[in-house]
Structures are given as C-alpha cells and as structure tokens.
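Bit of a strange request maybe. I'm writing a small parser for structure token strings and I need a real example to test against, not something I typed by hand. Could someone generate the tokens for this chain?
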Amino acid sequence: MKSEKFNNLISLTANFRAIAGIVFLAIEVEQNTHMMNAQTRDSVTKSILAIQEWNNDLATIELMDRGVAGQLATNTLEWATFRSRVEMQLRVSENELYQYEQGLFEENEFLPRTTVWQGAMNTLGFRQAWESVRNTYSVSFQDKIEEVLRNNEE
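Reply from user aminoacidic:
Good idea to test on real output. This should exercise your parser:
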C-alpha cells in the first residue's frame, strides 16, 4: 500500500514536471516570436534609413526628382544611378512582403506600406525602372506590384 502511494506520488510529480516543462516551452516560443518580430521591424527600419541616407545630398535628390518624373535618358549613368536607387527601395519592399507572408507583420502594419508602393508606381520613372528589373524579383512581389499598377490605372 505504501509502495502504491509512493509510486502515485512519483507519477504525479513527473506529470506535473512534464506539464510545467510544456508551459515553460510555450512561454519561450512566444518570447522568441516577439523577439523575431522586433528584430524584423528593426532590420526593415535600418534598410529604409540606409536608403534615405544614400539619397540625402542635393545632387542625388535632384537626380531622383528627374528620374521620378521620367526625365532621364535610359542607357546613361544618371539612369543607372536612378534605377539602382529604385531597386534598393524595391528590394526593401520585397522583403517587407516576404516578412508579411511569413506572419512577421500584421495586416494593419503591412497595408500602409502598399500605399507607398502605389505612390511610387504612380510615377513614370518608377514604372520605367520596374519594367527594366521586374523579372529579378519574386513572383509574389511581381504579382503585388502588377496589382498596384492595375489599381493605379483605374
């Protein structure tokens, strides 16, 4: 009888430890998810700031303004520079879409970003740059940008 009570106590203790371990594991997974989300947001923000830093001198700002307006001749160094800057912005946007698809951005965080895409793709220069590099992007991102372009036409 004492042996049976002792075995029951050991069994109960082992079950309690197993449950406590599962709870602890769930807490750790949730904390890691929050940390990943924070790191993702930080990484995206750093990318955006880096682009802004590269575009902060007067000559680059003027070049970007002319490029956005579609005033640069293709096959020139100015066009290549403009297209390179546009590609940086598009890569950040592609990464944002990927993070959203992976569940690291909430919909209410992601949708405002598509508004920025709409504004950019509403300019001649961005559309020209996109047409020259579109096949270098993921199919998912190509589909999103094509949707933006269709919405801009309406």
